[in-house]
Amino acid sequence: MKQFIVIGLGRFGFSVAKTLSEKGYDVLAIDKDEGKVQELANIVTHTVQTDATDENSLQTLGVSNFDVAVVSIGEDVHSNILATLILKQLGVKHVVVKAQDRLHGKVLSKVGADKIVYPERDMGTRIANNLISSNMLDYIEFAPDYSVIEIQATDKMDGKNLEELELRSRFGVNVMAIKTEDGLEITPEAKQIINRGDVLIVIGNNKSLEKLRSF
Fold it and tell me: What is the topology classification, in CATH, of domain 3-117?
């Protein structure tokens, strides 16, 4: 089972560490703030109060033995970048780093970050897209131009099957699954009837999904 380090226990880091721990993974949570460390002490496997920009401290903790490190240091960009660099130098295989903006992300890429996340931007995008359409329940950016959305069946869809709706030919989107009262239908057949209250999980490019929202 994978072992994780989470560095920086603000809202984002706390949430990541807590969720991983609840899913049964070993988590080492690190922060300079003793209060933040104490908040997670009874939730995750290990907590340590230390400066993540101190190479000796991280080496002593044996960070190279962990599979994934998540650097979620927020406002201190210098510490964020330095911690990322040290983790890679110490041999952590996969380092995920929280970035403030695109320029910050570019710098992180240069120092070896394997994955860069933009929590504030991504959450803002997700909320904004959820607000656009009353029948869209959730939105996940899948790639720069592609997304996965959950959309509630509209009156125009009620009582029709996927073949009749022709969503692929009309909008260029694919229905990956349908949530019904009876459960989840994965890769539904063309004859699958859509009923009011069903939820369609759809993937497509953003322009196509935009057209589907107004259907």
Answer: Rossmann fold (3.40.50)
